[in-house]
Design a protein that fits this description.
- This is Polyamine aminopropyltransferase.
- Pathway: Amine and polyamine biosynthesis; spermidine biosynthesis; spermidine from putrescine: step 1/1.
- Its EC number is 2.5.1.16.
- Homodimer or homotetramer.
- It is globular and about 55 Å long.
- With about 280 residues, it is α/β, with parallel strands linked by helices.
- α2 links the parallel β6 and β7.
- About 25% of the residues lie in helices and about 35% in strands.
- It folds into 2 domains: about 50 residues, Roll (Spermidine Synthase, Chain: A, domain 2), CATH 2.30.140; about 220 residues, Rossmann fold.
């Protein structure tokens, strides 16, 4: 008998994947967590019924959270990742030699534990000497660390459950205050097909706080609709003014110097959401 996992991305639409086996199915203190092996995408982390990452396509998301901001800031020495307990964004962050300290704050320690066990390709850099891993509330960490970080990255689930506060205006204000005077932040901001209102709200909130705000996109097949957006807020540096010839080639599979500015060219219906 074939077994399939389906993520209901809306009340009337979903994606489905054939399962080889289930490693973990557990209700943690914060959410329902499953780690499964799929035939098409390899091992997959699922939180509250939503696909968080898979071995096959994870590189797109993790590279696009990390590299546009880090290649915009001229000297990102200290970087914070809120959420992202699978470790993929941290793995990309520490590819930048100028990063002296990368801090991960993940509220659910079980995500870290099971990612290390079942997603070693993604979580394999969490024990590096320049990485600090904290099992804590990212919202509170932001509030308690003023003027400390060069770059802050919000690698959250969708705005439900423990991640809901990470999409509020007060959180973005806290990020602004936790950044140094020339700091940059980036957050995943869902997809324009099913969550257009969320993109509009986040863009409005961030524009009220940061002088420079840019939205960019990427293709991630296991995320709702496949078209995903990210919102970058900067106090000083504009990613569109970066000299792409000065961006070093890196060990990446999706992001590249040529893609840096191209990612900010949005389909018109998405661009209209950011006006």
């Amino acid at each position: 008998m074939d077994l399939w996992f389906t993520e209901k991305q809306t009340s009337s639409f979903g994606i489905t994947a054939k399962i080889k086996q289930t490693y973990v199915s557990e209700k943690t203190e914060y959410q329902d967590l499953a780690m499964i092996e799929t035939e098409e995408f390899g091992n997959m982390l699922v939180l509250d019924g939503m696909v968080m990452t898979t071995v096959k396509d994870e590189f797109v998301y993790h590279e696009m959270v990390a590299h546009p901001a880090l290649n915009t800031h001229p000297n990102p020495k200290k970087v914070l990742v809120v959420g992202g307990g699978d470790g993929g964004v941290i793995r990309e962050v520490i590819k930048h030699p100028e990063v002296e300290k990368a801090v991960l704050v993940e509220i659910d320690g079980k995500v870290i534990e099971y990612s290390k066990k079942y997603l070693p390709e993604i979580a394999g850099k969490l024990d590096e000497p320049n990485v600090e891993v904290l099992v804590n509330d990212g919202y509170m960490h932001i509030i308690e660390h003023k003027n400390e970080y060069d770059v802050i990255m919000v690698d959250s689930t969708e705005p439900v459950g423990p991640a809901a506060p990470l999409f509020e205006r007060g959180f973005y204000q806290g990020i602004f205050e936790a950044l140094k005077e020339d700091g940059i932040f980036v957050a995943q901001t869902d997809n324009p097909w099913f969550k257009a209102d969320l993109i509009q709200k986040v863009n409005k909130d961030v524009k009220e706080i940061f002088p420079i705000v840019r939205v960019y996109g990427a293709n991630i097949p296991t995320y709702p609709s496949g078209l995903w957006t990210f919102t970058l807020g900067s106090k000083k540096y504009d990613p569109l003014e970066v000299d792409e010839t000065q961006i070093p080639e890196m060990d990446t599979r999706y992001y590249s110097p040529r893609l840096h500015k191209a990612a900010f060219v949005l389909p018109k219906f998405v661009e209209d959401l950011t006006k």
